[in-house]
Every structure is written in structure tokens, then in C-alpha cells.
Amino acid sequence: MRVDCIRMGSVRLCLALMLGLLVVPGYVVAPVLFAKAGSVSLAGSLAGDIFHLANMAIIFLAAAVLVFWLRMQKSGALIGRLRWILLLLLAALIMGNEFAVSPVLADLKAQLGPMDQVADDNPQRKLFGMWHGISALIHLVAAISAAALVALGGRAPSKDTCPS
């Protein structure tokens, strides 16, 4: 088995993990937390911790894919411009959410205190809602980018040189 085949398998695994780390916390865990936690504050705190861990893992996985692809290109494999663009978009979206939007949300949460006790018409709560919406939109676009990367696969050197 060629080294590029092992790298390609590693890339596919990393891409699938990135997609899972976007879909499961965002569209499975968070809704369940908010439905079952009994407190919006507790659910939000737990969801924030889960998203932080998932985002950090996605950043490391994206870096691993980058390294694998660079190594594969040195050995003559073509990765394709669209795959590079999608990977860089995904990484930029996740880093933007993690290092730009999340600190704003954390600061607003600290100013507001327990969300359960804040009036719905409070301007700070509305501002929090706007930033939360921005974060959710970024998360959605990142998930779509990850799904596209998984659908495109990596770029195996050749079907007959890498057994499935």
C-alpha cells in the first residue's frame, strides 16, 4: 500500500470527523440541551463548552488535512483548487467563530448574568441574540463546507492504486 493511500485515508477520516464535530453538537446536542436542561443558562453554558471543544478539534483536524495534502502534492497527487478553497473557508469560519464571535457572546453573557432572569425586551439580550444568530449562520456555512469536502473526498492518487 502506498503512503499516499494512507494519507488519503487519513484525510477522509479527518474530513468526516470535522463534519461530525459540526453536525452533532450544533444540530443534535444543543437542541437536546435546551429542551432538557431545565435552565437556559445551564444549557447555554454546556453548549458553549461543547462548541469550544469541537471548534478546537476542527482546527487541529483542518491543520492535519492541510499537512497531508501538502505532502501528497509533493509526491505528485492533485488536490484541486475547490478542495483547498473549501478547507480554507471552513478553517476561517471556525476560527472566526471561536476567536471573534464567541468572545463577544461570552462578554455579553457575563454582562447579562443568568439568561433565565433577563427580560426578552432587554437591549443587551437582543444584542446577544443577534450575535448568536451570526454564530449560528457561520456554523451552518461551516457545516455545508465540511459536507462538500466529505462529498468531494480527498483526491486519491488513482482508484486502482488505493484499495478501498
Strand content: under 5%
Helix and strand pattern: HHHH
Largest sheet: none
Helical segment count: 4
How many runs of DSSP E, i.e. beta strands? 0
Distance between the termini: 11 Å
| Class from helix and strand fractions | mainly alpha
Poorly predicted sequence stretches spanning 5 or more consecutive residues = none
Helix content: over 70%
Number of structural units classed as domains: 1
Instruction: Give the C-alpha Rg.
Output: 19 Å
User: What best-fitting shape do the alpha-carbon axes yield?
Assistant: elongated
Averaged pLDDT, please? 91
What are the key terms here?
164 residues, mainly alpha, 4 helices
Q: TL;DR?
A:
It is found in: Membrane. Its main location: membrane. With 164 residues, the chain is mainly α.
Strand-helix topology:
Elements: H1 3-36, H2 40-74, H3 81-112, H4 123-152
Helix pairs in contact: 1-2, 1-4, 2-3, 3-4
Protein name: TMEM205-like domain-containing protein
Domain TMEM205-like: 13-111
Organism: Mariprofundus micogutta
Structural commentary:
The chain is mainly alpha-helical and 164 residues long. It has one domain. 80% of the residues lie in helices and 0% in strands. Helix 1 (3-36) runs antiparallel to helix 4 (123-152) and helix 3 packs antiparallel against helix 4. Keywords: Membrane, Transmembrane, Transmembrane helix. The chain crosses the membrane at residues 50-70, 82-106, 130-152.
